[in-house]
Known about the structure:
Layout: H1 2-40, H2 53-62, H3 64-82
Amino acid sequence: xxxxxxxxxxxxxxxxxxxxxxxxxGWDSILVPVDALLSSVGTGGLAVPVIADQYAWxxxxxxxxxxxxLVAGAMGVRFLLQSVPFVRWGS
Length: 91
């Protein structure tokens, strides 16, 4: 009796493992076209130009980098708040 129960238990474990493999193969088949699409997109435009040392020092000395960060943060918060439903855009 114990041998039969052990055999059923091993069969169920193998079946659950095969379901997991089927799920992974299915998920991979969904992601392969997405990966191909993303790899075909050029990333040359995403490169950030390097700021020269003299300009970076000047921006840091005058506090311009903090001002730019503050303005960018305010614009981000404004965008998020205007993304709330039933709120007019452009106000």
